[in-house]
## 1
Amino acid sequence: MAEKEITEKDRELAKQCLECKVCNTARKNQRGFAFWFVKWLEGGICPACKAHEKVYGRKAHEPIIE
């Protein structure tokens, strides 16, 4: 299956996900309501979370490894 091209809009939406307070809380704490919300609901509904996964190759609730 061919990889879809990452567009500028995808990058903008992924940036929104990086700046989102709910997603940041989920990535930072890895537990609690924000984590549950992002893991089970937001990933299937939110276009910013979908773009984050497409651009960065990891789910929106997964911690950022530096």
## 2
Amino acid sequence: MTIDELLENFELITNWEDRYRVLIDLGRNLPDFPEEAKTEENRVEGCTSQVWLLCNSLPGEPPRIELRADSDSFIVKGLLAILLLTYSGHTAEEIKRIDIEDIFRQLGLEQNLSPNRRSGFFATVETIHALAEKAA
């Protein structure tokens, strides 16, 4: 699934309970995250839930970024899946130009997530930007 396909799917789902189910399903389909990588170094600061993030540089010129993430919260895993759909496979420069706030609005997340989850979502975005820049 691409981020555009997810946006289209969310447009068809008007009930937020159903959207939460989609988020949880997205989170369940995250690629496996190595247990040994659940370290303080890979933990995202600013999240109420535990969130871990790995960033790898894929061969190529310029290198593309591959992200892996995990959380101890099902909803947060779904939010991480959205970020991986949005950012993985892009260059650091492309990542900087992606308007994640617009995607956040289009998905209707701004009015349906708690302030803590919203804050954690954007803390993860900042971490992705920093890791992508470092990996480039």
